Amino acid sequence: MHGAVTDWVEELITAAQEACRSEPFQAWLAAQSQFHDYSYRNTLLIKRQCPEATKVAGYRTWQTEFDRHVTEGESAIWIWAPIITTRCPECHNSPSYHDDADCDYDETPPEAWDEGLVGFTPTAVFDLSQTEGEPLPELETAATGGPDGLATALVEAADELGVHVERVPADAWTHGDAAGVCTRLRPADARPVIEVKEREPAAVAGTLAHEYAHALLHSGTPTDSMRATRELEAEATAYVVGRHFGLDVSGSAQYVAAWSDDEPDELRERLSRISRTAEQIIAATSG
Predict the structure, then answer these.
(1) Contact of 85 with 98, CB cutoff 8 Å
(2) Are 256 and 238 in contact (CB under 8 A)?
(3) Which terminus of the chain has fewer Cβ atoms in its 10 Å neighbourhood, N or C?
């Protein structure tokens, strides 16, 4: 098993490197770069106004960058956009407000000031679901095909792995584009809860293996720490589990490519963790 795992991880690394150079991946990467990361405050605002939001952009950005148009009658999602302009080195006010501020700084004229954040302004954005037009490039990352009953066997392995699993109907899914989520509960001895979106059995099986890896490898890890590393480990583990059971996991290469950040050695360095966790999932599922 150890030898097979090593070979499979090497194959996954090679496939991920090839995927990075592919035209579909480059098109997807270019599209993703147009979506900006939002602050915690703006993320809360977006989810409060549009809980199902997955990708948001401004009205013009949808038109010029994606050849999509906001559907007539849609309501804007309001966030706070930063105002960047020249500002006083002392009080950090823009030139227009500096004269009214209680600041005596006059060492350099306003035209010599550096740019910086001076405030925020309400800005309208719209979610992908509120637009229509050209489709966005997508990555085929889900597992496809494979032995019948694997998804059921993986669910039945939950007790032995110390995890609680819920298969959620697609029309009741509340986690956006995610196919599955793993919630690490507190206190520390509480079981992690995995929710997986109901789809074709092979895709459910691949998602379950991925989320099991998160539950076994990353419980107690802050959710905002080294996310790329955690995703690499989880998908490599799912790849090994899928290969063992004869599941088509070729989509893992695209997934790993999206998270690898040109560091395939990360997988090799973590081979023992990946191997140990994959074998644990395989044993629980086979039993």
Answers:
(1) no
(2) no
(3) C
pTM given for the model: 0.77
Please name the amino acid found at residue 135: P
pLDDT category, 28, cuts 50, 70, 90?
Answer: confident
**Shortest CA distance to 154 belongs to which of 167, 138, 145?**
167
- What's the DSSP call for residue 248? B
The whole-chain average pLDDT of the chain stands at 89
Q: Please, are residues 150 and 202 in contact by the beta-carbon 8 Å criterion?
A: yes
- Burial of 199 per CB tally in 10 Å (0-12, 13-18, 19+): middle
Q: How many helices (H) and strands (E) does the chain have?
A: 12, 8
**Angle of CA points 218, 223, 226, to nearest 5°:** 75
Contact predicate 38/46, CB 8 Å: yes
Q: Bridge partners of 117?
A: 84
Pick the more confident residue, 23 or 287: 23
Inter-residue contact 197 to 180 (CB < 8 Å) = yes
What is the pLDDT at residue 187? 61
pLDDT confidence of residue 191: 86
The mean pLDDT value for 167-196 works out to: 85
User: Is a pLDDT exceeding 70 seen at residue 262?
Assistant: no
Q: Residue 144 carries which DSSP code?
A: B
